[in-house]
Amino acid sequence: MSFYQDAKNVHDYIASCAEYDGESLQKIIQHSIPMQGKLLELGAGPGNDISFLNKYFDYTGSDCAEPFLQHLRNHYPSHDFVHLDATSLPADPKFDVIYSNKVLHHLDTEKLKRSLEQQQKKLHPNGWLVHTFWAGEGFEVFHELHFQYYKTAQLQQLFERDFRVVNIESYGEFAKKDSLVVIAQLMP
């Protein structure tokens, strides 16, 4: 993802997210999982979800792009941020929840499977995944970035290999039902 290694691209992306309102997603999360414990955010990017997540969880953020990490560390100095690639996660430390908001759609299906295998090892027993995706079909490449779109049945099939899928719900971020959130729990 060399696009996000460029500080100007990161700056432009952060500016484009300034009006982000995650209220509909936040409501789904609050009604779906225990709102406590240690949480790892994969791809924290501009940090739009930190304030909400930090109210309930012992928050750790991550990103694979150094310019995002610099932004996060400057704007949220009391939080922990680590450099992570979602396809090669170290087993420790473990978390109760792993969260991402429109991050894993940058992975093709095989890399997403690998990421889910890695996440399984990073969760405490009965841990939770909360991941959002753009709803749709197929993929596109835009400015060197891969965008994979999913339908509910595809996500169900991908996640149910290693997790109990509790809910896959559509919601609107920019348009009605343009997004899907997957809520899944690690099987014992």
In short:
The protein has helices at 7-16, 23-30, 50-56, 66-75, 109-122, 152-159, and strands spanning 38-41, 58-63, 80-83, 95-101, 123-134, 139-142, 145-148, 163-171, 179-186. 30% of the residues lie in helices and 31% in strands.
Task: Provide an overview of this structure.
A 7-stranded mixed sheet has the order 3-2-1-4-5-9-8, with helices on both faces. The protein starts with 6 loop residues before the first helix and ends with a strand. The model has no long low-confidence stretch (mean pLDDT 94). Helices cover 30% and strands 31% of the residues. The protein is α/β, with parallel strands linked by helices and 188 residues long.
Essential attributes:
188 residues; alpha/beta; Rossmann fold; seven-stranded mixed beta sheet; two-stranded antiparallel ribbon; 30% helix; globular
Topology diagram in text:
Layout: H1 7-16, H2 23-30, E1 38-41, H3 50-56, E2 58-63, H4 66-75, E3 80-83, E4 95-101, H5 109-122, E5 123-134, E6 139-142, E7 145-148, H6 152-159, E8 163-171, E9 179-186
Parallel strand pairs: 1-2, 1-4, 2-3, 4-5
Antiparallel strand pairs: 5-9, 6-7, 8-9
